[in-house]
Structures are given as structure tokens and as C-alpha cells.
Amino acid sequence: YLISAAVSDNPWQLLIAVKLLNVTTGRYAIPVFWKLMDRWPTPRDMIEADHDELVNILRPLGLYNKRAAWMKEISQEYINDPPTDVLRPSKCRLEIPARVKITAPSYVNPRKRKHYGSPQTARKTTMPYPPTPVSHYPGVGRYALDSYRIFCMSHESEEWKQVMPEDKELIRYLRWKWAYEERKIWYPDGVGVVKGVDIPYLLILVDELMEQLEPDEFWGPTDFISG
Fold first, then answer.
1. Who has the most CB within 10 Å: 62, 149, 176, 221?
2. What CA–CA distances, in Å, run from 178 to 158, 162, 170, 188?
3. What's the main place this protein lives (predicted)?
4. 71 and 79 Cβ atoms separated by less than 8 Å
5. What is the enclosing helix (H) or strand (E) of 32?
């Protein structure tokens, strides 16, 4: 369960959250995010926020002046040009394998995907990132666009199935989503689905989750505010 899932019904909040997480661990960024949303829950509120107060809340994360300016800028742009069904081109580019050789063993360990069923890439090329309704906003990079396509676009569109993220938490989330909802083993790095799930694979996912996810990533707004 990621912070992006908690705010999937509010693209503006999602863009703010992933921006904070872009260069900061969840342990520090997530409590600050909920504090920001408790204080300024809408784009209009953020635009009207007192600069010094906003900077003081962001100060523990570093780059506080730059972050504060960006939050006001994207909030204004969000009001001026909110997301619609219109897809906007992105300046991001995807690096994709030019040649991929895949083997699908009977037992797949997601921790060792470089050794089991991983792509063996001779060279790479790039392609434009797919257009999205939020690609036109300032400071929105691949992590934000991947998060938006996974969490904010309608489930019926199955857009999440087309996403090949680089972020380790998004990769972990998609491995779970593919396994739970589609009963498939899925790899990043341009590979995709390789086979149906089995019990050993599910046990590895559980073990990986218990070892690597920080408790902070399960916090919701009620937990933070009441604490």
C-alpha cells in the first residue's frame, strides 16, 4: 500500500506526494505530506499559503524554497488548466531494450530477476513517454507520470498494465497487483508477463514486503493527524 494509492482520487495531491518522495525517503516525506494536506488541502489553499509557513513545514526535507515555489506554481497551473480526458505530450523519454532474451523458469525469485528470467540487453534505445492528462505540468517527470497512470487513470482502461516503472516501490506494487488481480508473474525492464503465479513466488513477495517496506508507507492521514 503506497501513499499514491491513498490519494488516487486526487491527482493534485498525488503529484505533490510523489514530488516529495522523488528525492526523500517515505519515513520523512510522508508525514510532511499529510501535514501539508491538513493545512492546505486544495490547490487554491496552496496558492494562498503563507510562504514562510510553507517553507518551515518543508524545511526538514531540504530544498524547501525550491519545493515551496514549485508547489505554488503547479497549484496555479492545476487551477488554470486542470486534467481532462485530453492526453498531453511529455518531454520524458523511455529507455527500452532493443533486444531482449527471456527465459521463464518454473521458480522465479523477484529479488534475483537479473539471474532468473531477466532481460539480457545488448543495447538500448529510447521512445517518447506516452501522453497523459498531466504531462503538461511543470516539474512532472517519469515517476509522477508512472504513478498517475497506475493510480489515477480508470481501472477499466487497464492503463496500469502498460506501465514499466523504474522506481522500486512502483515495481514492487505492480508485481503484487499483477499477481493478485491477474494471477501473473510480471517483470519490469521491458519484460512484462512471463507466466502464471505459483505458491513459491507469492511467498517470496510476502517475504520481500515484510523486509523492505517501511511502516511509514502504511500511514494514512488519520494516523498522522491523530498521532
1. 149
2. 11, 12, 12, 12
3. nucleus
4. no
5. helix 26-39
Nine cell digits for residue 227: 498521532
Q: Pick the closest to residue 95 from 9, 19, 40, 164 (CA basis).
A: 164
Q: Describe the crossing of helices 11-21 and 142-151 by its angle, rounded to 10 degrees.
A: 140
Average pLDDT over residues 18-44: 94
List 184's β-bridge partners, or say none: 196
pLDDT tens per residue, range 80-133? 999 999 999 999 988 876 544 444 444 445 555 444 444 454 456 888 999 999
- Average pLDDT over every residue of 122-147: 90
The mean predicted confidence, pLDDT, of the chain is 85
Higher per-residue pLDDT: 41 or 126 = 41
The pairing of beta strand 192-196 with beta strand 124-128 = unpaired
Which three cell numbers mark 128?
Answer: 517518447
Reading the block at residue 207, the C-alpha cell is 517475504
One-letter amino acid of 139: G
DSSP for residue 122 = S
Sign of the Cα pseudo-torsion (27, 62, 77, 162, in order)? negative
